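User: Here's a protein and a ligand (NAP). What would the complex look like?
Assistant: Let me lay out the input and then the predicted complex.
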Amino acid sequence: MTISPSTTPALVFGGSRGMGAAIVRRLAADGRPVTFTYAQAHERAAALVLEIEQAGGAALAIAADSADSDAIKTAVETAAARFGTLGALVVNAGVLKNGTIDQFSLEDFDEMVAVNVRGVFAAIHYAAPHLLDGARIVTIGSNTADHVGGPGSSVYAMTKAAVAQLVRAASRDFAPRAITINNVQPGPIETDMTADLMDFIRPRLPLGRIGRPDEIAGLVSWLTGPDAGYMTGASLTIDGGWTA
Ligand SMILES: NC(=O)c1ccc[n+]([C@@H]2O[C@H](COP(=O)([O-])OP(=O)(O)OC[C@H]3O[C@@H](n4cnc5c(N)ncnc54)[C@H](OP(=O)(O)O)[C@@H]3O)[C@@H](O)[C@H]2O)c1
């Protein structure tokens, strides 16, 4: 039988800052116990756990580099041991490095692929046996999977296009368990990652403003909630009209 996933435990990869932190806050406000990973931001992660606990929720932060598949596996097992079988998995951790093909180093290429592609696969792979039937998986891709605004984005765009297709095809694997998997493709959102780019982007955005992390969290909340059970394999672009 398909379970109602709305208050079951959630695991968010990359939840200490930016969109990930907004997603953690929103899923906790939805009533879910939330485990989240981070790479380095110990203090921000601890502060977020405290904030959620003071609001009456339950949260756990785990340091786990998404480039390290053993760390991902341990994070999944720790989350399941603490709060029980997972009802929602959100894979948000990602890195952005720009550079034209001639300038982009192979070391940076490997790091981008390790976190943005291999890390996403590893998170889904290791979480799969810990997911309830009827659970929800959401990845955070990028609108650059469909359209880039200028030179220097090729490797980042490639990683996000890979995520979109991984999700599309994986939906067939998860369907027999009524588990949905969808990919959110944000456009420019105000976070640390894009702080340097905003003066360039803002005047080019049809809606005339940069998106807020909580607007992405709202879409993730819907995708992980009871009304989204018939959507799977989709990539949903939310970008203020940037790619329109
Ligand atoms: N901001 C945008 O405009 C935009 C647009 C489209 C797509 N995206 C995508 O949205 C996602 C979140 O972006 P953001 O702007 O919120 O980024 P951000 O502000 O840089 O935050 C990134 C989050 O991911 C974590 N993280 C980064 N590398 C990690 C690693 N190797 N292992 C584990 N955790 C890691 C960070 O942890 P620490 O705090 O410990 O570093 C942090 O919690 C990314 O996948 C990004 O590609 C962003």
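Summary: Residues 14-20, 37-41, 65-67, 92-96, 115, 140, 142, 186, 188-189, 191-194 surround NAP (CB under 6 Å).
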